Amino acid sequence: MFRRSVFTFFISAILCLSASAQQQDTLSITLENVTYPYPVKFLPIQTEGQDLRMAYMDVLPTGKANGRTVMLFHGKNFGGYYWADVIKALTGRGFRVVVPDQIGFGKSSKPFIHYSFHQMAAWNKLLLDGLGIPKANILGHSMGGMLATRFALMYPQQTEKLLLENPIGLEDYRSFIPYTSTSDQYQNELKATAESIKQYYKSSYFVAWKPEYDKLVSVAAGVTNSADFPRYAKVAAMTFTMIYEQPVVYEFQHVTVPTILFIGKEDHTIVGKSLLSQQQQNQYGQYKVLGKQTAAKIPNAKLIEFDGAGHIPHLEVPTEFLVALLGGL
């Protein structure tokens, strides 16, 4: 039932850029000119003297409602737009699906604040409370996996299941990645171009590149042409620091909720990979090993591995991923 191109909905509904945006190849840093697959609402948030907006999609079941909710946490280089097929599959099976863009990402505000997984988890709890949802299954991909783990640690009573799709943070990057200040990382972020982003995605995220993946690059690269890109780059540097300085790897044994890891075995993602020698790059980020190690740390965790998949199984092997996800739920 899932044997449709992974980007059928992505192309037709998720990423409908305006004609002028396509012509100029420019996106605003809050993606106003990117159409998400479902209506977007905003949660007002006040922090550090600033009024912010947290974007989210709240998608009701299309199949017979089962009374359960799944919350989807995106990765660092993405927003809620890349979950389209997952949302469709879940809602078709009766789940309500809530898909936030974390503060600093996607359509949400891009403030200069102290970025914290603890604070992000609290904001997501606030969103669920406001929607009247007492408990949810939390699915986190990449950076979203670190956030999902923090959420489950802070709010076990509100977490039905913890679902981790190729989460980063399975290693303590501080132990082998040279320290980079936020200021230095900001200078690195400013150098991003469409070409460098595509090369990074090709070398880091997928086993085999497909033309439809260019849609991901068009979003990530479109903001580099915005007049506000320096703000975007600064926030990207600040969230890089958050990932580096706030590991969850030492707390997996404290997770008390049912947990499933969905791991693409060909993933070699390392945050700060460019700072390592080739020999070091070959030593770390080995998800075919890290998945097993992490599952062993989390009490009663289940591990589901995907052959021939890299960092984003829900895009690269969508049929296998959705069957496994629905089975796990």
Automatic annotation (TrEMBL):
InterPro entries: AB_hydrolase_1, AB_hydrolase_fold, AB_hydrolase_sf, Epox_hydrolase-like. The keyword Ion transport does not apply. The keyword Repeat does not apply. Pfam families: Abhydrolase_1 (PF00561). Residues 69-316 form the AB hydrolase-1 domain. Residues 1-21 form the signal peptide. It comes from the Bacteria. Keywords: Hydrolase, Signal. GO terms for cellular component: membrane. GO terms for molecular function: hydrolase activity. PANTHER family: HYDROLASE, PUTATIVE (AFU_ORTHOLOGUE AFUA_2G14860)-RELATED (PTHR43798:SF33), MONOACYLGLYCEROL LIPASE (PTHR43798). This is Alpha/beta hydrolase.
